[in-house]
Amino acid sequence: MRAARSFVLLGSLVAGPTMAQAADLLFSPAPLQAQPQVQTSSDWIITVKGNLRAGPSYPGADDFSFIGYPSLSFRRAGTPERFSAPDDGLSFSFLEESAFRFGIVGRFQGGRYLEDDRRLAGLEKIDWAVEPGVFVEYWPVEFLRARAEIRRGFNGHEGFVADFGLDIVQKFGALTLSAGPRLALGDSEFTRTYFGVTPVEAALNGEVTAYRPSGGITSVGATAAVGYDWTDQWSTIAFVSYKHLVGDAADSPIVERFGSEHQVGVGLTVSYSFGYTP
């Protein structure tokens, strides 16, 4: 049920005329990074992608859920595709011809439902959330990227969150490798939504105690990806990510009783690019 809800919501996000044109959920490229070009006299290169993801059912969970969804991006013909890490948010840059980029970004955060884990009985349901915000990205050298995102949640939570990452990106012919550390922060509104327990919830559940966390660093970890260009049109990307919950998030009775501090995600994307002239 949860995966189906997420599929519909993500599908609508990536299919929208504004955001679908603006960015890519997975792989878009670095300054000075050579990419194979689709041989065409068309004005635009359109890339259609099929994405499969597996990760924790909800923040702090110890079991997995799966989701599949399409995504779409486009760029001017002759323009190299910009690199983006698998865990980047959906973004639109206001500055492209530079080692420095900034713009708007958005993410989707799945909810927490009783069907995810029956042990959650008595805990309040958390709906899915969207997180619009801004990002800044900088390439100090051709193979190193630093990126920061600051976002605000709506619907499921109304807190502020931030993600910081550093990626080493290396291309060997048709093969592209990337890896780097991650740091995530959330304010008290965010941590209390996903990791807090009210006295009423504690009494109804009977397995956890009341808990009121504060904001701060919520996780540290890393993401690694491997991409391969099979032809000028076809490519695949696989990735693995790891988050270790820390601070008040790790001390949550929900995590200690029902979940895990170790949050692992994996994914695969298949892409097809073609030329288009309006």
UniProtKB/TrEMBL annotation:
<feature type="signal peptide">
    <location>
        <begin position="1"/>
        <end position="22"/>
    </location>
</feature>
<comment type="similarity">
    <text>Belongs to the MipA/OmpV family.</text>
</comment>
<keyword id="KW-0998">Cell outer membrane</keyword>
<protein>
    <submittedName>
        <fullName>MipA/OmpV family protein</fullName>
    </submittedName>
</protein>
<keyword id="KW-0472">Membrane</keyword>
<dbReference type="GO" id="GO:0009279">
    <property type="term" value="C:cell outer membrane"/>
</dbReference>
<dbReference type="InterPro" id="IPR010583">
    <property type="entry name" value="MipA"/>
</dbReference>
<keyword id="KW-0732">Signal</keyword>
<dbReference type="Pfam" id="PF06629">
    <property type="entry name" value="MipA"/>
</dbReference>
